[in-house]
Design a protein that fits this description.
The complex is a heterodimer. Chain A has 2 domains: 2-187, no CATH class; 202-253. Chain A is 76% helix and 0% strand. Chain A has 11 helices and no strands. The longest helix of chain A is centred in the first third of the chain and has 33 residues, at 2-34. A two-stranded antiparallel ribbon of chain B has the order 1-2. In chain B, helix 3 runs antiparallel to helix 4. Chain B is mainly alpha-helical. Chain B has 2 domains: 1-32; 33-106, no CATH class. Classes of the chains: A mainly alpha, B mainly alpha. At the A-B interface, helix 2, helix 3, helix 4, helix 5 and helix 6 of A face helix 1, helix 2, strand 2, helix 3 and helix 4 of B.
């Protein structure tokens, strides 16, 4: 009896060891795949740190924002709004719209972690940003949903180092910001980063029309109060993109 | 900039990050988005980005300046072309900022 239990323990122990081994290998694989993005993440972090301070936020506000919000595009988007006293509701809605892509990312990645308890899903979900979306679905396609082996290790490797690089960059940027003259217009680097993020999102003709229409409406409606032109532009842009899809579908029929 | 507004905005933005990123991690088994909404969601982020980028390239503050000799506009176009050719994020920032600075001093 005693012997059997020991044997069972030993088996469980070795199964555990194997699992740990698999996750560790997966972590190394994920790190090798995504390490090349670290310098860009660090640089973009620096730009975000500078942009926050340059827009008029204090050191502690900037540090709090980068550590908790951790969403560069949304931060860049609302900084100019904050500077001109935009209502908080519009700021929140703007952040939600810019972040909407994360809902789609979440729908793509979350099923792979459905076996975890809710607090772990909440924790890992928080890190599921642009970088993890660029790597995870490629490595683990939809068919692998019910095979959890290696996924957590891989996911941690493509998320945690990036988080760290981003925060180190942001804090360097926050500290350096006061050394840089206003006329350098360092916040423009944020706009350039947004351009580089947006171009790969233009995946078809409909998306291109959506971008052109939304951008044009935003320029024309720039004078609307509370930056409502932005929300209007997004709604008209989405409608235009969907209309183009509909027209292409009709052509095919 | 009003300190209270900034702190509330930080809380709201954090909420926005958690709500959007964790949505399907927490409620994936319970929610099924209608196909039409999914379709619309797919185009929302790019449209939102464009609505932020274009006014920044074409205006100063809340006044539109349709002027081809604007350093921001030209540097934005230059950066876009560079990204289209190289797909390099960091390089795009460096090239765009360099162009912007040179044009700002020259124009």
């Amino acid at each position: 009896m005693m012997k059997e239990t020991n044997a069972g323990d030993a088996q469980a122990l070795s199964a555990n060891a194997v699992e740990r081994r698999v996750e560790r290998d997966a972590f190394q694989e994920g790190w090798r795949a995504s390490a090349s993005t670290i310098p860009a993440v660090l640089a973009w972090g620096i730009v975000s740190g500078m942009a926050m301070v340059k827009s008029g936020m204090t050191l502690w506000q900037s540090v709090a924002m980068t550590l908790t919000v951790y969403a560069g595009s949304a931060q860049f988007a609302i900084l100019p709004l904050l500077a001109v006293h935009t209502p908080l509701l519009v700021i929140f809605l703007t952040a939600m719209i810019v972040n909407l892509r994360f809902v789609i990312f979440s729908a793509a990645v979350a099923p792979h972690f459905a076996h975890l308890p809710w607090y772990q899903r909440l924790w890992y979900g928080y890190f599921n940003g642009d970088i993890s979306m660029a790597f995870f679905p490629q490595r683990f396609p939809v068919q692998t949903v019910h095979q959890p082996a290696g996924k957590l290790g891989y996911f941690k490797a493509i998320c945690f180092p990036g988080w760290f690089a981003w925060q180190v960059g942001a804090i360097i940027g926050i500290l350096l910001a006061s050394q840089i003259p206003e006329s350098w217009n360092i916040g423009f680097a944020g706009t350039l980063a947004l351009i580089a993020v947006t171009i790969p999102m233009i995946v078809n003709r409909a998306a291109l029309v959506g971008v052109v229409v939304s951008g044009s409406v935003a320029v024309v409606a720039i004078g609307l109060p509370y930056r409502l032109g932005l929300l209007l532009a997004v709604l008209v842009g989405i409608s235009a993109a969907m209309l183009v899809d509909k027209m292409i579908d009709k052509e095919k029929e | 900039m009003n300190a209270f507004d900034v702190w509330v905005s930080i809380v709201l933005l954090t909420l926005s990050t958690v709500i959007t990123r964790c949505s399907f991690f927490l409620f994936g088994h319970a929610v099924k988005l209608p196909p039409k909404l999914q379709h619309a969601l797919a185009y929302a982020p790019a449209a939102a980005m464009a609505a932020i980028i274009m006014p920044d390239l074409l205006s100063s503050g809340s006044v539109v300046e349709l002027n081809w000799a604007s350093p921001k506009l030209l540097a934005g176009i230059g950066g876009s072309v560079f990204f289209l050719v190289t797909r390099h994020l960091l390089g795009t920032i460096i090239v765009g900022m360099t162009l912007f600075t040179v044009l700002r001093l020259v124009l």
